[in-house]
Design brief:
The chain is an alpha+beta fold. The chain is 70% helix and 13% strand. It has a domain of 62 residues. It contains two helices and two strands. It is elongated, with a radius of gyration of 17 Å.
Length: 89
């Protein structure tokens, strides 16, 4: 059972670190440029959107929070939990 818990802790540290890094990159990029560019779909039905702070402030801050701040906070929390689980007491 201890090996399973250690495996989950290592996974939480790895995935949490990735989430925090990607969230920080999006957050810094969005705050610096004032816009968020994203696309979804494939082939001829692909849709590309640009949300700017000046154009739609509510949606911009909602995306910054959901795609930037939230992954940073949850990623750091997961990585911290993993580190505290593995480190000797």
């Amino acid at each position: 059972m201890n090996m399973l818990r250690a495996g989950f802790a290592l996974g939480a540290m790895f995935i949490g670190g990735i989430a925090a890094f990607l969230g920080a990159v999006l957050l810094l990029s969005a705050l610096k440029s004032g816009s968020i560019n994203f696309s979804y779909g494939t082939g001829p039905t692909a849709v590309t959107e640009t949300v700017t702070l000046a154009g739609d402030a509510y949606r911009y801050w909602k995306l910054v929070t959901g795609l930037g701040v939230l992954p940073v906070v949850l990623g750091i929390a997961a990585a911290r939990w993993g580190w505290r689980t593995i480190s000797p007491k």
